[in-house]
Amino acid sequence: MQHRIRQAGLPDSNEVGRLFNEYRMFYNQNADIEGARQYIRERMEGHESVILVAETDAESEHGTDESNGMSLSNGLICTGFVQLYPSFSSVSMGPVWVLNDLYVYPDYRQQGIARKLLQAAKQLASERGVLRISLSTELSNKQAQALYESEGYAQDTRFMYYELNV
Length: 166
Hints:
The protein is 31% helix and 26% strand. It is of the alpha+beta class. Strands 1, 2, 3, 4, 5 and 6 form a six-stranded mixed β-sheet that branches. Helix 1 (13-26) packs across helix 2 (33-45). The protein is globular. Mean pLDDT is 90; it is low at 61-69.
């Protein structure tokens, strides 16, 4: 099974929205497929995020059944995505990205797709002159932490992060 990573465009918003809905449900949010599609479409239309998708050959037991959270696109199944939000560092006086969302459909995990998405994000960031990529993950998500660390991400030991819900 071949996996291909590419930057998503507006025509991909329905497929990415479907995966984004699954991602949100992973974090105990209610299913909202139309809201997820709209959110992704708005990010794409406003050039507010960079989204990379993983596509896998359609020669799979899943076929073209959209009920399983995937759909067929040119003989390929959209199996995962990463969403990066551009920002800036005042101190470094340059662009940075926040890796906010990384998701691989459960049936396709443990095949290196998440790693390929991270590597593609790093490559694209380098090509675009981005200084660094930052991310956060749940304290209990040891599997994700191990993946991030194996790809060179290091836990911040200099700064303490705070949040304020408004």
